[in-house]
Design a protein that fits this description.
The chain is built from 14 helices and 12 strands. The chain is of the alpha/beta class. The protein has 2 domains: about 200 residues, Alpha-Beta Complex (inorganic pyrophosphatase (n-terminal core)), CATH 3.90.1640.10; about 120 residues, Roll (Diaminopimelate Epimerase, Chain A, domain 1), CATH 3.10.310. Helix 2 runs parallel beside helix 5, helix 6 runs antiparallel to helix 7 and helix 6 packs across helix 8. The radius of gyration is 20 Å and the shape is globular. The termini are far apart.
Length: about 350
């Protein structure tokens, strides 16, 4: 985002506007954290601000300040349509293709509101008037911090903003262990703690609120873990029947794929989760080093993301999806070789 763009946005924000903030479908910690962080900042400047999430999200994200104000499009379509229709500005956060917002795509695409994208995923679509797109960033929350700083208003970052942005940075960096975590990331995190983010409490809220059923589900996932040593690959599968057995709730499988990646010698991990509701197999992919799961997901599983973290989907059944996954590994033998 260049200086002219920033000046134009400053001018737009100089007077109260009707603003909508939209995270992606099935929002994660970075999506909700960035949306709420930006929400608190814009409310300080007397804008009429609404966050509309395409659908619901895990309970472990529902403690952040003003989370209860978030509208859910799938449950409140008429109300949400009216808010979008009257919007002057629409911020899209943590995604760069309107296909990532599900049923909201058409109304947002047709909206005459000025659109501002803030996102760190690869290969952005050209739908926004103003684009702050940087794949080197650890998270959209880090970018929202930078965005506020670009507007010369970092002094307005308070405890609520800091708490929300810290949450998204922590979750999207895997508690600061992923390669996208830079010295700049740590500097920003330090500033957020100074502004009032309670790092220990945030970590507890996200990671230390397991239910008994979720831990039982994790046990089943680990018992399903398979290793393909010749391709330094591991994968987990969970059927709908297994999810039902352990009273699956949205977000319960968050982080499961990383257990495969934690195995010694493994550089590529996947999890395949059957969803009868969506009639698809949901896929999460993780990697180490230069192996691009973004490229693999885009090519074979109608998805995408980052070099080391991506998602996808399959309309085959669970067994057929896993068979397909195994069948394409020889294509990547040179990238996965020991």
């Amino acid at each position: 985002m260049n200086k002219d763009d920033i000046n134009s946005i400053k001018t737009l924000l100089n007077s109260p506007k009707a603003i909508v903030i939209i995270p992606h479908k099935n929002p994660d910690g970075d999506a909700i954290g960035s949306a709420l962080g930006l929400y608190h900042y814009l409310k300080q400047n007397n804008h009429n601000v609404s966050i509309i999430a395409p659908n619901d999200y895990p309970d472990f994200l529902k403690w952040m300040p003003k989370e209860s104000s978030i509208l859910k499009y799938d449950a409140q379509k008429e109300d949400c349509d009216a808010v979008i229709y009257h919007a002057d500005l629409i911020f899209t956060l943590d995604f760069n293709s309107l296909s990532r917002i599900g049923d909201m795509e058409t109304i947002v695409s047709n909206s005459e509101a000025i659109k501002i994208m803030i996102d760190h995923h690869q290969q952005p679509d050209d739908y926004a008037t103003y684009m702050y797109s940087d794949i080197s960033m650890s998270s959209t929350c880090e970018m929202v911090y930078n965005f506020i700083e670009m507007l010369d208003e970092a002094n307005k970052i308070d405890r609520d903003i800091a708490t929300c942005l810290y949450t998204g940075i922590m979750t999207d960096t895997g508690s600061f262990r992923f390669p996208s975590t830079t010295s700049a990331t740590h500097h920003i995190v330090g500033q957020l703690i100074q502004k009032g983010a309670n790092n220990s409490e945030i970590h507890n809220q996200i990671y230390d609120t397991n239910s008994y059923a979720r831990l039982q589900l994790l046990g089943r996932a680990l018992s399903n873990l398979k290793v393909i040593p010749e391709y330094r690959t591991a994968y987990i599968s969970l059927s709908q029947e297994e999810l039902n057995t352990f009273d699956f709730k949205k977000g319960d499988t968050e982080g499961f794929v990383n257990y495969g990646l934690s195995l010694k010698g493994i550089i590529f991990a996947a999890i395949f989760i059957e969803s009868h509701q969506d009639n698809i197999i949901k896929i999460s992919l993780r990697s180490k080093g230069d192996f691009s799961v973004n490229e693999l997901s885009r090519t074979h599983f109608n998805g995408g993301g980052h070099t080391n973290a991506a998602g996808g989907r399959s309309e085959l059944n669970l067994k057929e999806t896993i068979d397909k996954f195994i069948s394409i590994l020889p294509q990547y033998k040179q990238d996965l070789k020991i």
